[in-house]
Every structure is written in C-alpha cells, then in structure tokens.
Amino acid sequence: MAEPNSATPLTEEEAGPVCCPSVLAAPLEAVEAAELARGFSAIGDPVRLRVLSMLAAAPQGEICVCDFVIPLAKSQGTVSHHLKILSEAGLVHGDRLGKWVWYSLDRARLAALRGALGS
Fold first, then answer.
1. Mean pLDDT of 73-95
2. Is residue 65 part of a domain?
3. CA separation for the pair 90, 103 (Å, rounded)
4. Does 107 fall in a domain?
5. Is the dihedral of CA 88, 66, 74, 106 positive or negative?
6. Which of 26, 63, 112, 115 could make an S-S bridge to 19, C-beta 3.0–4.6 Å?
C-alpha cells in the first residue's frame, strides 16, 4: 500500500540519494547510462506517461490495475504490459491484494531521473 501523502511530490532531500549522476555534470559510465536509459525508455510512451500521471494524481496514492482500463481505453492485457515495463524500470510498485494488484509511484526513482537531467 502507498504511504500517506504519497501524492505530494518529494523534495530532493526526502527522495534520498539520487541513483544516477547528472548527465550534464560529467561523462556517464556505461552502467549509469544503461540505468538512466531504462527509466527514460519506460516513460517514452504516451500510455505509460498517462499511467504515471494518474498515479501521481490518485487521492490515496495508489490505483487498482482494473481502474486503468476504462480511462486509458486499453485492454487489461495492454494495461498490465505497460505496468510491467514501468515496474521493471523501478518507476511503480505493485501490491497484490486478493486477485487485484494496486500500483503506486516510486517517487524517489522519478526524482532520480529528474535529477539526472539537472546541471
């Protein structure tokens, strides 16, 4: 389940250490570049961006997988595919409750990606 106030953006201090250095500060090592690319690739799809936006706006900080189908106008299988990609990139976390999975954002991971674009 999501933490209280998880819909509130985290400050850099709250997000904890950034996983990846700024791409503008110095040349990246191959491992760092691959980790950043995995995250940015995952958000490089309009459906996945909408999923992240919906999660960010969720009053309870989480959404049941079943509640993405109608707003996204996608099948359950397609929604699950997009959530799997976001999960593998570390951008969302799923908690199974009975037959459904509830998803929430990993705000620290999003902050790390945002921070990597900073100077």
1. 95
2. yes
3. 12
4. yes
5. negative
6. 112
Domain that holds residue 84: 27-116
Number of domains present in the structure of the chain: 1
Q: Which of 44, 43, 82 is nearest to 63 (CA)?
A: 82
Burial 92-114 (b: 16+ CB within 10 A, else e): bbbeeeeeebbbbbbbbbbbbbe
List beta partners, residue 64.
102
Does 8 reside within a domain?
Answer: no
Residue with tokens 């933490």: 3
Check which CATH number belongs to the domain holding 34 and give it: 1.10.10.10
Contact 69, 32 (CB under 8 A): no
Q: Running DSSP on this structure, what letter comes out for residue 60?
A: T
Amino acid, res. 89:
A
pLDDT > 90 fraction of the chain, expressed in percent and rounded: 58
pLDDT the model gives residue 72? 96
Q: What is the mean pLDDT of residues 104-108?
A: 94
